[in-house]
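ok so i was messing around last nite and threw this chain in just to see what happens. nothing serious, just curious
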Amino acid sequence: MRRQAASGAAGDAGRAAARVADSADCTRGRSPCPCRLIDFCAVWDAGVFLASAARQGAPSGVTGRRLNEAETLNSVREDQFQRLEAARPRGLGHGARGPVLRMAGPPPPWACTAILLCALSLSGAIEIPMDPSIQNELSQPPTITKQSVKDHIVDPRDNILIECEAKGNPAPSFHWTRNSKFFNIAKDPRVSMRRRSGTLVIDFRSGGRPEEYEGEYQCFARNKFGTALSNRIRLQVSKSPLWPKENLDPVVVQEGAPLTLQCNPPPGLPSPVIFWMSSSMEPITQDKRVSQGHNGDLYFSNVMLQDMQTDYSCNARFHFTHTIQQKNPFNLKVLTNHPYNDSSLRNHPDMYSARGVAERTPSFMYPQGTASSQMVLRGMDLLLECIASGVPTPDIAWYKKGGDLPSDKAKFENFNKALRITNVSEEDSGEYFCLASNKMGSIRHTISVRVKAAPYWLDEPKNLILAPGEDGRLVCRANGNPKPTVQWMVNGEPLQSAPPNPNREVAGDTIIFRDTQISSRAVYQCNTSNEHGYLLANAFVSVLDVPPRMLSPRNQLIRVILYNRTRLDCPFFGSPIPTLRWFKNGQGSNLDGGNYHVYENGSLEIKMIRKEDQGIYTCVATNILGKAENQVRLEVKDPTRIYRMPEDQVAKRGTTVQLECRVKHDPSLKLSVSWLKDDEPLYISNRMKKEEDSLTIFGVAERDQGSYTCVASTELDQDLAKAHLTVLADQATPTNRLAALPKGRPDRPRDLELTDLAERSVRLTWIPGDDNNSPITDYVVQFEEDQFQPGVWHDHSKFPGSVNSAVLRLSPYVNYQFRVIAINEVGSSHPSLPSERYRTSGAPPESNPSDVKGEGSRKNNMEITWTPMNATSAFGPNLRYIVKWRRRETREAWNNVTVWGSRYVVGQTPVYVPYEIRVQAENDFGKGPEPDTVIGYSGEDYPRAAPTDVKIRVLNSTAISLQWNRVYSDTVQGQLREYRAYYWRESSLLKNLWVSQKRQQAGFPGDRLRGVVSRLFPYSNYKLEMVVVNGRGDGPRSETKEFTTPEGVPSAPRRFRVRQPNLETINLEWDHPEHPNGILIGYTLKYVAFNGTKVGKQIVENFSPNQTKFTVQRADPVSRYRFSLSARTQVGSGEAVTEESPAPPNEATPTAAPPTSPPTTVGVPRTVSSTDAPATAATTEATTVPTVPPVAPTTAATTEATATTASTTTTESPAATRTEIRESAPDEQSIWNVTVLPNSKWANITWKHNFGPGTDFVVEYIDSNHTKKTVPVKAQAQPLQLTDLYPGMTYTLRIYSRDNEGISSAVITFMTSAAYTNNQADIATQGWFIGLMCAVALLVLILLIVCFIKRSRGGKYPVREKKDVPLGPEDPKEEDGSFDYSDEDNKPLQGSQTSLDGTIKQQESDDSLVDYGEGGEGQFNEDGSFIGQYTVKKDKEETEGNESSEATSPVNAIYSLA
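result:
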């Protein structure tokens, strides 16, 4: 038996607090650092120095008075506290901490002074919480939130859009400069600015040239507290010039010579994408001999005769115009000594010598010479390229002098001719060289790489929010190569020309503020630049004075497991920064020290939770402007523990195994017990039975062997216990004295041999290993290939254990290696040693990749993906994929690209546009079949519009109807998923009733115009917004609508308690409803006395809304009372709660049941504890079922209940019986009085409980075959009908709370009736029926005798002549006078038994319209008329016909024959 440690989660808290331990060497009074700015010893011993702790305990004004001293220690600050400068801002009492500084050992002597300086450097960083109510109240200088890129290239066919958006309070205004001069938008009719935004729109619909607006733009956002600047945006118009016309002569080249075909594309903005194709738009196949350089030229390391088979055209694709321009094609004329192009020599190693081409050493085609240099900017990609000529084609290898290539950033491209290093940094500078070599020799080229850098941030200035009188600083620190310069500005003006400020001091890259006041508010700009670029950052200084405010919801509940660590959070905000203190249960001193630790952000950590820590904790935040407080309620829960764990077991096949798992847990937490098998969730099959404390496996098989883990979990913690089950096969009893030999796994097969080698098959033969006393049942043949997944073995085929040779079907171009595994009933053998390898020849692919999709991962792209083909479907070397795409329904030319992976991203696509996609496989032997066309879509963007004209109609107190106008399809910008309504309860119309304002949502899928929102709270104020939802997310929100739900009926009164202190009175108590749903006007109590089957007159009492108690004077000491209590509003009475008075102590022996009662009573008592009602016996009463005919009376059974046992008595009856448990109402939450009324295939279940409305219950029932089923049900859904029962089956049933399975009813047993049970007596046993049958038999005998006599006389007597009444022409008889008895034979006998459903089956008719309907009697067509009417009429006619026709009398038959 093995036990695993439980993962005891601390519930809602205790996950993120850093442990700060007390140290023996650093206690109060013994600290080596006597300064009082912080408790430096505590944070030092813990090994973590929290930057935010530097302010704790600092006296007011210390930072200002010691500024000069701090500046003298600037070198110490730079070396030791550089990382602390980006620490978490102050002011927000809870949130993510800033960076931490790890320390070891005791603090050095300079620590106190450095900490003082650190307090100064960190001061002045109040963080504004994201709460909208706070954000909207506080004034704030402008902040740029969105702007166009610095190099803004636009499409000349579209309007120009230059973005600039900002936020601030009050909202900022905007203006622009162009080429450093004020840009007057009002004077240009083409230029406009968006409302509430600074975004410029230049419209060319009425004419104009976009080139006239090129230049450098800058946006200014201003309010009364300052001005923020955007970057300098360089606007350029995209250009795609035409290719110059030229006539190209054929290029004549000797076979084997190098060749460069120059592209020289026209200069475009941005630069075009270059690719080579033939004039018939077929891509040029590239390899290490023929490839395209980075400059767009096409290089031939050596020209071969086969290169004449096509022409070569350079193509340029321009990004913005989506056009492709094609250069006039080059035609090659290859001079050769071997004019015949023998394709069999194409890949031959001696191809050149066979064609008479002289071999030569490599030489570089690009770059020229032996050395070159290249400069690259930091963060960009470095691309080095070497293209060499030679015969044979040279191989290229790359090296770096004095070191290795950066393996994590370097990758080779273009058949190793290019080296790309991504995200270049300074350490990537140096000398690189490429080595080109073939069998004739080698040559190298050295490239000297210099890495420069545009400015990049070391410390970007951050917004600074201070309280009046506080100090702070802005730091603007950047690096670059060459070193950038720093320029400060304030509100867009150079700092030197700004008005002087005595509270501000500039020290290089730092501005220091002392004793800030409200007038110090401004926006500062830091511009750092060098020859490679610039950085511009805005940071505002704001001064706030705000009284303390709590940011978390009030009266939170935190639940935590005993002995765990937890943290109680109390987020707060204020300026100046408030101080925070914690109290427990509203009294006592501040909690800090010992088992408590208070963090600087206000969180209270309890290091080890004990039972006495449970209670209400109050946090109080105070500053000079006031105070605020909040409360947190802490509940301590017992841990979940498995006290009886499953044990390792060894079982024989076919036996039954039980694994125990008994759990102890906190009763207030919902326990869930699940099982794992081999660390995977266990599927409970019909051979398994999962109970609360065990898992039973019936008929154990080999597949059941493994490890089983019991997982007992609650919402706060869990515990695990594991056991291993070993299954032994059945062993026959030995016939001699020798014991049966043990069985084992077979030995591995050996001596694998490949024969009958064919192009697509091979025969594999092996010698079996020893079966170890268990016959081998199967062989599994596996293969491994060394190209796509070397070292990975795959199943190839499976063969019976009687063979040791098999023919294997193979795929083209796979280098196979095989092994064999033997299997018997014990297990699998070790794999055999691998066979020799066998490579099949190649072929073009016979299939294409599957699961081709086109989906956008961003709003302006489409990602084409597919499932790559495996090694057995590649069929050849260099498997690649030709990806083609084009806009659907435009019939434009196909775009194509060759990809070696399994995805390709098409960039710069319009938003959500359909594309046709094809992906075709290709290898060196050719292309695969023509691929299917798949429709894909480019990326979605957020919807641009919100639903308009939203109308709300209140349906009732809990539901509203919504109606809106749909948005235009082009504003959805994707696939419309749904319209979604966000709504929240703003307040209740009842005073002093706290409500949760949690936002809820209701979705209306599809393109709909209306919907219903239900499950609202009555008598409340609500707000609602609507959005459009597509695959990207929500669109903008509609206008907020407000509505009020009317008054509704209240919920049931809570905790309705019935107590009987003596025999004269009954005391009733209750609590107010949980949901009044309106103004309570009173309570209504209805009660009635009953004694057995006698029921008295109902009495109604009305109470005021404040009354919650009532005493009933009993009329007699014997009767019991049934009470029903409901609350009332103006709308009406709500849900009633029903209880019964306890049974008196002298009611242990019940009276006999009335004669009309069914003869079955089942009594299952509830376990009685010392806290239950005085009655110690649960009595089961017999209940009359009105539809059951009278049977023999039976006295009700009475079962006594004890503290530990419960008994069940069952008496079967041919009629439906009522099974019931009668118990007194308990005080605590419970389920009682379970009643079952079964039939043959169903049963009605009712019960009583004292839970609140809407409680979920689970009805669990188990049949005689131990099959357990559960049915979830709501509290108000009574009675519940179980409809999947079996006739004549015995069931056990219980009902428990879904939230707490420990609260359960007693177990009740009942039996369904037999399948063909009938309430009437058997007709075959009735005397009148026996007499009638005897009379009929006698008459038939007389008839036979008469017929025999007449036949013997030889006379012929027609029937018609002998009948007393002549037959009319309409009589349904034969023309010759003979009588037809068919109708009478089909008519049922009078008084005979009907069918089980109580009806006589209607005569079948070929032309009945019922046969053409959707059912039998009572079914109608869609208009509800014709079929139903016809059916009723037909039934009536048939019934009348049967009633008018008489059964043929045997006496009349005798007269007719006579």
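not much to say yet. The mean pLDDT is 78.
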